[in-house]
Write a structure and sequence with these properties.
Shape: globular
Helix content: 25-40%
Strand order of the largest sheet: 1-3-4-5-2-7-10-9-8
Largest sheet: 9 strands, antiparallel
Number of helices: 6
Amino acid sequence: MSTENLTTQAMFIEKYCAIDSNQISFTRQQGSDFAKQVADDFNPLHDIDAKRFCVPGDLLFSIIIAKSGLHKKMTFDFSGMVNDSVELNFPNEITDSVDITDNNGKTYLSVSASGEKTHCPALINALTKAYVDFSGHTFPGILVKLMADNEVMINPARPMIMYQSMSIDLIDINIDSLELKLAETSLTIDGKRGDAWLEFDLISNGKHVGHGKKHMLLSGLRAYEQESIDAMVEQYRQSKLAYQA
């Protein structure tokens, strides 16, 4: 493991927050920059001036594997929205499971881990970028089609898509490159609530090396209306264009 690779990994994560402490907090600028610059995610909850500002869940995931290492099997269960006033306690090592809590003991994320572990910066960097890019393009790229196929949509006046959990199951961690490919999507509807599952394959140099899935909760579901969906997508597109201008 070269010093150059270690430096590159540290610079990538620490551009968005310092990770050398066990207690980490986030500014609105850091959370928003990560969402827009790394995930290409223009969810209004990640805007600096958002009334209900929320740190991207993918930033928490990125910090955990950068600090604690990447295990063959990992599950991340989100239970609370992190804002810019919260200071979280992150472990340097995970043995079986750990809760990411604030100083009052409130849990925001629960992580379970098993199997062989690696701190290879090249692999962790590749997985972080591949997953975060995939996750950030969930809307509109994947969810719009999934909603259309099931003839439902979220409330355009108050669009609520909550990140529930994510899991990774790697066959091999003795690799230093990784790509992610969408494998399957599904949406289970119960009244106005929908559980969306996005499954993906992990590929290294053309070889299948693992699998994973992301779970999201869609609330306020109603009958699908193309005009309303088009308006939401256009608003999202305009937010992206405004940021890039």
